[in-house]
């Protein structure tokens, strides 16, 4: 049973401030050894998003890594969707626009999978659906890593936390496609009005309404989100199949770093959408606090349980946010060996 540290969001004294909580947590979860090159994996948010993890949290972790004798760099990977994270140049710019700079964090920001998202190391994971997965090279080649995740909702996985950060955020482009490819959609010609919205959001040139070129499609489904006619139809059980791959893919970074990873879930500003959204929706539940540990499965399990506990008085749960069950990817990660859902909360 894994120990998960929990610091409540209610601040009653200066020692309860988030940076001070991180300082008290860090020695208990840190995998950092003197001389380590340490990846600090974050999601800096798409430009326009205002509810992502704050730079001051990242700066606190950076300084603690330095105090421990590590050499830190802050990192993220490119995306499959059309925004300011599609390539390294724009990702660095977007991160800076959201306040993630060397001056604010005391460490360089490095795009882990290279200029166009193709730099990676293939890791054998021997899962039920995935035999191997490609992990972004700067993650795979680091000596240790701290994963800082914003706990929030997600339209495809129900919840985004540590496991999703591993099984999606730490992969290169090919790895992300491997997870998403089971969701390649089709177009219903009777609903399609040829508006071209789907063409505009697809960066791969896969759509010529009413047809989708499946050899170019990545299955990322921004096109379906953009279609107001609901003419773009994902295949049956796309979410479930994607989540099982997501959970298995999480083992890739864990194996690459031989388990030398510490995890922090920052569970504030719980919006329905991912930080990939270029806007921030209204919170669906009050702030929870900060959770941390060395087991990503236990950490996300504890986080989801606390969210559900806070939503229960109003008859809700994390499932009701999108109608998507997040336990699918958590259980897949557990089955492949990323950790255990069993945990004990510690102060």
Spatial shape: globular
Please count the helical segments.
14
User: For the largest beta sheet, what order do the strands appear in spatially?
Assistant: 4-3-2-7-14-15-1-16
Structure summary, number of beta strands: 16
Largest beta-sheet details: 8 strands, mixed
CATH topology type of the largest domain:
Rossmann fold
Low-confidence stretches: none
Q: Which radius of gyration do the C-alpha atoms yield? A: 19 Å
Structure, explained:
This protein is an alpha/beta fold and 347 residues long. The chain has helices at 18-29, 55-67, 88-97, 102-105, 137-140, 162-169, 173-180, 197-201, 222-226, 238-249, 251-256, 296-311, 318-322, 327-336, and strands at residues 2-8, 37-41, 71-76, 109-111, 120-124, 132-136, 144-150, 152-154, 158-160, 186-187, 207-208, 211-212, 232-233, 261-267, 289-293, 343-346. The protein has two domains: 2-179 and 239-346, 3-Layer(aba) Sandwich (Rossmann fold), CATH 3.40.50; 185-233, Alpha-Beta Plaits. The chain is 34% helix and 20% strand. The strands form five sheets. Strands 4-3-2-7-14-15-1-16 form an eight-stranded mixed beta sheet, with helices on both faces. Strand 11 and strand 12 form a beta hairpin.
